Amino acid sequence: MQITDVRVRRVAKEGKLKAVVSITIDDEFVVHDIKVIEGEKGLFIAMPSKKAMDGEYRDIAHPINSGTREKIQSTILGRYEEALEKEPEEEVQEA
């Protein structure tokens, strides 16, 4: 599996949500709405999810193993850091 494209949309509002990301895998499959979140231990990603009938949020799409999750997270966070360096603060999108 190769992550062939990463699109980062930074959000301007205050809070833990820093960006919303779309990734393309092998130039064939896209996953939208991956969130970059600032947690107590630093940045992490949250896979796209929806609220279930019981009120809990469940991932719509997610990696099966921790190695794949780490590969996706490190790629996304690397691109997010690049976006921080390239874009001035006033050019970020409103969420």
From TrEMBL:
Pfam families recorded: SpoVG
Keywords: Cell cycle, Cell division, Septation
Gene Ontology biological-process annotations: division septum assembly; sporulation resulting in formation of a cellular spore
Keyword flag Cell division: yes
Keyword Phosphoprotein found: no
Gene3D superfamilies on file: Stage V sporulation protein G (3.30.1120.40)
InterPro entries reported in the protein's UniProt record: SpoVG (IPR007170), SpoVG_sf (IPR036751)
Cross-referenced NCBIfam families: PRK13259.1
Reported function: Could be involved in septation.
Family under the similarity heading: Belongs to the SpoVG family.
Protein name: Putative septation protein SpoVG
